[in-house]
Design a protein that fits this description.
By secondary structure, this protein is α/β, with parallel strands linked by helices. Helices cover 32% and strands 22% of the residues. The protein has 12 helices and 14 strands.
Length: 400
């Protein structure tokens, strides 16, 4: 049996063997939905604190693995590693020098520093970044490492987040790497696409459970359909990607493999194709049709080359082989990044009329950019305002 190095013993005692504070960052407005998700996961944590833009909880290292693998609505998971007050650079340097960076960051890795300040005497972000980076480098030089350490691994650039409010510093390590909306499934994008995390939130708000028909009639790159297929098959959203925590010195590959295997037990194959993505644009249609060949969950999607406004109720019955109502989800053009505002209003009104005629009894999820148009929706509705790439969108859900 290989003898543990002093560094390995410290990592085991201080990182693997202890609880840590985690912050799950989420799009403002979706905190409550993300909290529901967290509470449904097999975490060691049982107490959560919701704040604007995220949820905090205390947990073990494996909780970080589980959260990254399973959360559909979150943007990233941060691990808090230090908190202190500093109103001058001398104090800041002293506090940074006491952080055992070698327990958190692999040898040779120089992370990206992401600093935000508010009401702080130390407001110069570049100067703060420089001192954090210098502290990490100096600690790496002094620290003792594994003899077989061949240098840094590079799954993802490591990010360190520094948040300063009223001279109080909170330093966090990013465990996710790429934002969690990147599922590792898509290589193609439409113009002004909805992020997967927003799509997952819309499906959850609309009550989608994977056992009913879902029509994505303006599918673009297929984000709604792909998310629905992942939900219907109970495939974890992070199943096909890697994470920054896999580069950490404390990473336990066998534990991670066990967690992934446990998640595989729940993956199912629905009896019928109940998800249909329709797109009249030939390039988008072909890209989505090609993509679904590579991932088993996506085979639950039927890809149609059809204009939504040409669909009739009998076509819908043929598509799903049932006359039971389901969920229709639409993200129409806004006239901001695509088309004109006048044209987008015309399309929106056509959508409402189409729903009224051919989708009575169906649940709907509809994104609206123009607040004036919300009053024109005649169906019972619930709304939530979301920030989508600087645009304020309203998500309407209800029944036609």
């Amino acid at each position: 049996m290989e003898k543990e190095s002093p560094l390995q013993k410290r990592i085991k005692r201080h990182i693997i063997g202890r609880t840590h504070s985690f912050f799950v960052a989420v799009t403002p407005g979706l905190e409550a939905l993300c909290l529901e998700e967290l509470r449904s996961l097999p975490l060691s944590a049982n107490a959560f604190s919701m704040a604007k833009g995220g949820i905090e909880f205390e947990g073990r290292l494996q909780d970080c693995y589980i959260a990254n693998l399973h959360l559909r609505i979150a943007n990233r998971v941060l691990m808090r590693i230090a908190g202190f007050k500093a109103s001058n650079f001398s104090r800041l340097e002293k506090k940074l020098g006491s952080i055992p960076w070698e327990l958190y960051i692999s040898r040779g890795v120089i992370p990206e520093i992401n600093t935000s300040t508010k009401h702080s005497r130390l407001y110069h972000k570049d100067a703060i970044d420089e001192r954090v980076r210098s502290s990490i480098v100096s600690r790496s030089v002094l620290a003792e490492f594994h003899e077989d350490d061949g240098g840094p691994r590079t799954l993802f650039p490591q990010q360190v987040f520094v948040r300063v409010v009223d001279d109080m510093f909170t330093i966090s390590l990013d465990s996710s790497g790429d934002l969690l909306y990147k599922r590792g499934l898509k290589e193609h994008n439409a113009i002004a696409p909805i992020r997967e995390t927003i799509a997952a939130a819309a499906l959850r708000m609309a009550g989608f459970n994977g056992n009913e028909p879902l029509l994505d009639p303006m599918s673009g790159s297929g984000t709604f359909s792909i998310e629905a297929a992942m939900i219907a098959t109970k495939t974890p959203p992070g199943y096909y990607r890697n994470f920054s925590f896999m580069d950490w010195p404390c990473f336990r590959p066998e534990r991670w493999k066990h967690i992934r295997r446990e998640s595989e037990i729940n993956i199912v194959e629905p009896a019928h194709q109940m998800i249909a993505a329709s797109e009249k644009d030939a390039a988008s249609y072909a890209a989505l049709e090609e993509r679904i060949k590579f991932f088993a969950p996506l085979r639950e999607i039927s890809v149609l080359k059809m204009d939504f406004f040409d669909m009739r109720r009998k076509d819908i019955m043929i598509i799903f082989n049932t006359d039971l109502p389901g969920l229709i989800i639409i993200n129409p053009p806004y006239g901001v990044r695509l088309g004109t505002k006048r044209k987008s209003r015309e399309i929106f009104r056509k959508i409402i009329e189409k729903l009224r005629i051919d989708f009575k009894g169906w649940k709907y999820a509809l994104f609206v950019h123009d607040g004036e148009l919300i009053r024109e929706v005649p169906f019972k509705k619930t709304s939530i305002i979301l920030d989508h790439g600087g645009l304020k969108l309203t998500l309407l859900t209800g029944t036609v």
